[in-house]
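WARN retry 2 of 3 for item q-0093 after timeout on previous attempt; input resubmitted unchanged.
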Amino acid sequence: MTDVCLVLMPYAAMERPSLALGLLKASLTESGINSTVLYPNLWFAQEVGIYNYKIISEGLAAYFVGEWTFSGVAFPDFEPNHSDYFRTIPNLKEDTIKELWRVRQKAAAFIERMAESILDLQPRIVSCSSTFHQNCASLALLRRIRELAPEVITVMGGANCEGVMGLATLQAFPWVDFVCSGEGDEIFAQLCGKVLERGRDLDLTELPFGVVGSAHRDKEVVMALAPRASVQDLDQIAIPDYDDYFQTLENCPKLAPYITPGMFVETSRGCWWGQKQHCTFCGLNGAGMTYRSKSPERVVREFSWLSRRYGQRKFFVVDSILDLKHIDTVLPMFAALEEPYSIFYETKANLKRQQVQQLAQAGVRWLQPGIESMHDSLLGLMKKGNTALMNVQLLKWAREFGIQVFWNFLVGLPGECGEWYIQMLEWLPLMVHLQPPTEETRLMRFDRFSPYYERQEEYGLTLVPQRTYSYLYPLDAERLKDLAYSFDEVGEERKIPEHQRLKEWVSEWQRLFKSESPPMLSVMEDNGDRMKLVDTRPCAIEQEISLDGLAYQVYVECDRTLTYRELLDVLNKKYGYEVSWDEIQPVVEELLQRQIVLELNGRLLSLAVREPIVPLLDVREQPAGYVDVQGYVSDSRKAFWELFRKKVPT
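OK item q-0093 returned
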């Protein structure tokens, strides 16, 4: 028996526990309320198979296929045109469609079993966390809970319930009693305490700020004023409790052999850059943009506690952006550990060389630096606050120190120009020795809370809920507008021929980088006044290059981006002599002609990576956790043929 069941429905990731539910369980424990975190996402992955689960949750995520598989049981009387829906998904094969229908049928039976299993625990409250593609599964479960046990209180929270979306959820689905919007660390335990004492009939004055309930159904509520909870002092929140995840995974024999778990952890909330200048496409953080950070002591203590408790040293930091103060306070303590952590962080790309080195030394070998393009004008449209050359500089230093970088080309921006892509394609071949984008290209998606959504008129946009929602929910257009997170632009899709050219080039870049002999441009020798470079890029002018004298000095100083004026000043101050522009110009021009220095908008950057280059870690080591899909498929085939041989003796 438990007071509260906290439930993580499909299609949450299999390879790591839920940070949100881990925090809520710990908070409830501190408040003296008994709770259990359940992981039906793991059980469903066992049922449909790892391969199907990954294809639906990742490969087909852009088309909300995971939501479709549970929409039927969530809304049994809703029959959209499924053939039309499948036509919205490009290159979908008939065999895949049949398999998706099988998964959808399994989803209905799965919900029935899950509801009965949860009610066997005799909870008084059942709460689902809904982020991205868990909404229909969560609504389906809570609906069945209500039908089987009307006395049980139902709650939803998570990113899909932020602000107006949470209020829309409450008003559209009467089997949901309460919806929590924003950060639930403080308000959820307060809500549960009141519900356990009083039941579901709480009036507006009794609801913690950030919670909407039945009282909001009876009143005219301005959607734009939907409440959102926020925590001010992050040092006061609990350390997440992941016990239930690791126990559940251990008892999943069809999953455990193929999963190397990672763990979520957070060191800050909000975005300090977004407070200054909100990136135009970014819909993260919602109304919680205000930046707050944990103290260095709390960060170190939390990492240490989680590592000891679960025997894990892989940490995926969920922060929207790294607190730069932690580079000098937290990271040196991590670097001093005998056994290093493996850490993922998000940051801005305008880091200094020493900061990148400090990250690597502390175990931050996985980085998402917000590189979305390699053209200053495109970056300006996004309000990224960095330049293309800064992005190249970061990729160069990350390659030297063995940091895996996750980045993308966003295309289809309002106001973009095809000429900008042509200009990029002229010099991108110079950087094929650096890490390519994670994806070929990514077409701009318009999300709620982003400046593109909030200020549509300013950007010449008319946005409507993504078409897919109409195949998932039996709601009218006005209600869908409040429920949706992703939106389509009215009119023709923003595609130009240059997008395809860029996509083809990135595909070739990825192929080269993953080949047995990837291209290199490296400083093989540097004796202080002379260096030797080796260049095996397809664009190489010479395979071996020697630099000395002024050319050497220019190349060394341009390890970081410099204007011509800054370069002259550095040379004169550092080397103690006067050098004129007439002397430096032919040297720089020769380096540019050799394609070992890049000039963009009046700034220079040397492109060679210094040896020794630290190897990138294997994908199996990533802090987010790893699922061995290939191993699972291989073993499944072996098991099938073993069964076949037993049934059909030779």
